[in-house]
Amino acid sequence: MARPASALLLGALALAGCMGGGEDAIPESAGEQLVLLSADLPAVFSQFDGGKLVLADFLPGPREDPERFGRLSGWKARFKRGGGPKTAGPLIVESRADLFEDSSGADQDLEAYLEQFEETRASSPGSSRLLDVAGLGKEAVGFTLRQPGSSAVRHITVAWRDGNATASVSVSGFEGKLTLGHVLAVARKQERRIAVAAE
Predict the structure, then answer these.
(1) In sequence order, which ranges of the chain are alpha helices (DSSP H)?
(2) What is the extent of the structural domain holding 140?
(3) Measured by CB atoms within 10 angstroms of the end CB, which terminus of the chain is less buried, N or C?
(4) CA-to-CA distance for 154 and 156, rounded, in angstroms?
């Protein structure tokens, strides 16, 4: 019997954690360079929040403890643009990064992302699902949620692990106008920032 994709991913993450170090640790001093900057997005976007993650940024669930898995610190950057139901692509972009003492902590955090997505999917069946994400970080997970309304809104989050860091990009746009490709294009810009910090 085939195992669910989520079970296969959890197994892969557990195996990666057992394999331990060997990856360069990203220093905490890299800080805000681990998230998106204004220069990474088109000029129509403006930043409305940024800096270190604070308690108000943590949602209830498997990732709400600021000290989870040997976490050192984390950062955020949030951007928005004007637009309406006919606007193609992202309207709101949130970029996050968390640093851990080692890659094992980051592996556990990515697993917690998946648990968080699964919990949300269970509470909103039919309007949300997991996404297959390839070519991002060492491992990656994705999730999408449709928020109904007169003009339905699509939310897409991708999260990944590189070395001792986890990162995520969460994007909102109108239904039918936002795709996983839009989100991955933004996420890869953040991934390059993290790769530079690890050199």
Answers:
(1) 5-18, 103-123, 180-198
(2) 5-198
(3) N
(4) 7
Give the residue from 3, 10, 8, 30 showing the smallest Cα distance to 163.
Answer: 30
Q: Which residue type, as a one-letter code, is found at position 23?
A: E
Q: Which residue's structure tokens are 């909103």?
A: 124
Distance, in Å, from the CA atom of 31 to the CA atom of 50, rounded to the nearest integer, reads: 11
The number of folded domains in the chain is 1
Chain mean position to CA 111 = 12
For Cα atoms 51, 17, 75, give the angle at the middle one, nearest 5 degrees.
0
CATH number at residue 57: 3.40.1000.70
For 70-118, what is each residue's pLDDT tens digit? 999 999 999 999 999 999 999 999 999 999 999 999 999 999 999 999 9
For residue 125 the two structure tokens come to 């069946």
d(CA 171, CA 39): 17
DSSP state of 149: S
CA distance 131 to 145: 10
The pLDDT assigned to 24 comes to 65
